[in-house]
Amino acid sequence: MAWSRVLRLLGSELRLVAGRRRNQMGLLVLAAVPVLMAVAVKLSSPRRRGGGPDLLASITSNGLFVPLAALSVEIGLFLPLAIAMLSGDAIAGEANTGTLRYLLTVPVGRTRLLVTKYVSLCIGALWGVAVIVVPGGLVGIAIFGTGPMLTLSGTQLPFWTAVWRIVLISLYLAAGLAALAAVGLFISTLTEQPLAATVALTIFTILSWIADAVPQIDWLHPWLLVDRWMAFVDLLRDPPFTDTVWQGLGVDLGYAVVFWLLAWARFAGKDITN
């Protein structure tokens, strides 16, 4: 019975998230990037120059590189911004519109509500990655064709093995975004203004990228959430180089646990009577 109530609450939350017009527009923007990249590359027909992993230049050789190139571009800002919008609405948005007080008088326990909110954010993270990968893959195959994928190690992967690698990359990046969502959920419990929560998480992400690019504080880099997001390219090696991937997942888990607990501690004592 308890699980059925949780599932009903989760279903209601997902319908609410999916029904917001700004979220729908955000998904369209995410999906449009790989399509625009594929068309631009087709029209310009760039030649690969070598010198390291260049996913954009590899598009012409295999359409499966389109979603990978799009992910490498969008993971910097577009995907984190999408997560910031979702997490800003999670608690602050409900408090701003007055529905948070109603939800907690249904009755729905605060812990159950917070778990439901975070699960919906995790699904949103996976959703955001999927709307890049699926359209990007389909458009890439339609324009550039497919076949064996050339890895960063110089070997070739069969088509379905390459697809499986893309699935793993998608899950890896979704895990990083889910950890970022935990940070956003905590920030969302600190304010009743969803825009403020969205801006705060966006600034957090930008500052993390800036700090990760400063060599003078390289001691801090392993502790930054964004530091190993680009390690997904190691899954394009043959065999995959998974050390940095596992380290990245460990950091993701640490952020998710710590910031969800902080959100719970804040939300458990939050005054929602006003």
From TrEMBL:
A GO cellular component annotation in the UniProt record: plasma membrane
Transmembrane feature ranges: 25-44, 64-86, 118-144, 164-187, 194-211, 245-265
Keywords per UniProt: Membrane, Transmembrane, Transmembrane helix
MF (Gene Ontology): ABC-type transporter activity
Superkingdom in the source lineage: Bacteria
Pfam families for the chain: ABC2_membrane_2
Protein name in the entry: ABC transporter permease
Gene source species: Intrasporangium chromatireducens Q5-1
Lineage of origin: Bacteria, Bacillati, Actinomycetota, Actinomycetes, Micrococcales
